[in-house]
Amino acid sequence: MTLMKSLMGAAAAMALTAGAALAEPALIFDLGGKFDKSFNEAAFNGAQRWAEETGGSFREIELQSEAQREQALRRFAEAGANPVITMGFAMADPLSAVAADYPDTKFVAVDVTWLDAPNIRQIGFAEHEGSYLVGMMAAMASKSGTVGFVGGMDIPLIRHFGCGYAQGAKAVNPDVKIVANMTGTTPAAWNDPVKGSELTKAQISQGADVVYAAAGGTGVGVLQTAADEGILSIGVDSNQNHLHPGKVLTSMLKRVDVAVYDAMKAGENLETGVFNMGLAEEGVGYALDDNNAALISDEMKAAVDQARQDIIDGKLSVVSYYENDSCPALKF
Amino acid sequence: MDKMPKWADVVLIPLISLILAAILSALVILGIGEDPVAAVNMMVSGALGSTYGWGYTLYYATNFMFTGLAVAVAFHARLFNIGGEGQAMLGGLGVAMICLYIPWPHWTMALLAACAASMLFGAVWAAIPAYLQARRGSHIVITTIMFNFIAAALLNYMLVNVMRPDGSMDPASERFPAAVHLPTLHELLAPIGISFSKAAPANVSLLVAVLACVVVWALIWRTRLGYEIRAYGHSESGALYAGISPFKITMVAMLISGALAGLMATNNVMGEAERLVLNSTEGAGFIGIAVALMGRSHPFGVFLAAILFGFLYQGGAELALWTNIPRELIVVIQALVILFTGALDNMVRMPLEKVFLALRKGKA
């Protein structure tokens, strides 16, 4: 194993020295940072899996400032990295300025679907559909008839999560009470577990006994407090069931790791265009493993799987917050 | 009489502090198994080795000059303005409104109007804490820092609910029209035969920043108002006895400070992003405190310190791009510089004063 590792390390070093000819992929993390236990970390895990399986290596940068967005794109493209994978909607604007200058480089934009460029693979996730399913679970698992939602920064994307969640909860129990809070209005809201914990306690005092965290690193505090206070929580993006086995009801999966892995695997021959990853494409879903199996009854699973199938078949439609910037089930 | 000559105060102390910070940073880089010499080489060549690197270094430096001057002016009146961040955010809002809602025929007029708007918005945001300090005695440090959060919330509301174009998921305003595009250094220097990197964001607002340095110097040391500000800063009771109104000086110093912080928006919002984004200030308001401390609240010192911090930012970005040094470590290096030049100032100053006193005694 150690020998294998050093061999692979040597191969990676050689690939590095060979430079542009091999066209390493590059990965640009958003301001949240590589180890945010959710969105960016999922991308890193996907890239890591690709690197382990193929023995390849990739370049990466964790952005520190807005001005670096365009800078990193250009520097990687000029260094011959291909494809250049970017995380988060905030890369859309710099990408639209940069992509045309490097027609031979393929770019991948996760969480962006509205650009018009031939060399960008745009990947959007139907977070509202996944959130709908965990919302149903929350309402079914709740004994008090009150469920909570803790968002990260108050931006449309997070309202989109909360909106799907509220619709799912109301579909199960029309009288359900939904308590929704956002952590803050600055990027620090993505990484404030203490505030997440406080909000969770406040929601518990309002009767919530299931809390869904869509808040990046802040969610760690939400899950911790929920476990400490003996209520259930729902994780987001990555499978967070293992953080508190038996205390996390489920996790809303957003398979960013798969998207990144696929992009790196395809390499330079990447297919471009707009890709929507919904329930049908298994881009989103809920997590079921040994850690939460005891929490989810057969009826719950049957109801959620039925809803999932209905959404895929088009029999059930979940309203997206983006459609008219408002939510039918929840006021923010 | 001063304990040591002026040149030692303004040159020697910052230099020794920097060297100490550099040595400690090198040890930290060694500690994580990277080569500090190679890292320094990469930072220097990445930030100063090409017009591209200079373009980014000067872009960051422009931001820090504005916020550094803002903090420095308030320092002269013994006011600690931690609200540069919020004032710059509001300045950005003013710039965005000017650029988006008024059709400008030429960038020069747009820049003048944007300067006025950003100064106005920044000054208004500083005026409330200033009034609370001057009339109610609410401590300016507390109120300005709280106003940073209010500014963030206001900006968030404006971008998510008012200024966001329909259908966009990104909480940001529309792109400004092409007519208000500020010329970059590439466009400015091309006519006189100097080729400057096209990709770099440094732009004409660098000249605004330099001009602001000169104006602040003239204001503080060459006008009656500047004298009053300094007098108030040295002794409030003395200034009161001389007939200087503490209320007036607190308000005026904070208004100027806020206006300078707001001016930063001409660089980052109008010059670089050309649209208003949520996170446009990125902590430059706080870096301004370090810049002002290091620059001894003198505009020329602020100018130099701003370029140093611009170098650290751009050099740090190069490190993050091409090495495995994590970005947290780059923050550590920047923090060490701030720690040594700002907080640990006396650690270098006291022994140095003793050395100079001993030298003088030896001569006498």
TrEMBL record, chain A:
Pfam hit, one: Bmp
Keyword Nucleus applies: no
Chain coiled-coil ranges: none
Domain of life, per lineage: Bacteria
SUPFAM superfamilies: Periplasmic binding protein-like I
Domain ABC transporter substrate-binding protein PnrA-like: 29-312
Localization terms from the record: Cell membrane
Family annotation (InterPro entries): BMP_lipoprotein (IPR050957), Peripla_BP_I (IPR028082), PnrA-like (IPR003760)
Signal peptide per UniProt: 1-23
Membrane-spanning ranges: none
Membrane topology summary: Lipid-anchor
Family: Belongs to the BMP lipoprotein family.
PANTHER family referenced in this protein's UniProt entry, alphabetically: ABC TRANSPORTER GUANOSINE-BINDING PROTEIN NUPN, TRANSCRIPTIONAL ACTIVATOR PROTEIN MED
Protein name in UniProt: BMP family ABC transporter substrate-binding protein
Origin species: Ruegeria alba
From TrEMBL, chain B:
Keyword Transmembrane recorded: yes
Coiled coil location: none
Any Pfam family: BPD_transp_2
Protein's cellular compartments: Cell membrane
Bilayer topology term: Multi-pass membrane protein
Segments passing through the bilayer: 12-33, 53-75, 87-104, 110-128, 140-160, 199-220, 240-264, 276-295, 302-323, 329-348
Keywords from the UniProt entry: Cell membrane, Membrane, Transmembrane, Transmembrane helix
Descriptive protein name: ABC transporter permease
The organism of origin for this protein: Ruegeria alba
Lineage: Bacteria, Pseudomonadati, Pseudomonadota, Alphaproteobacteria, Rhodobacterales
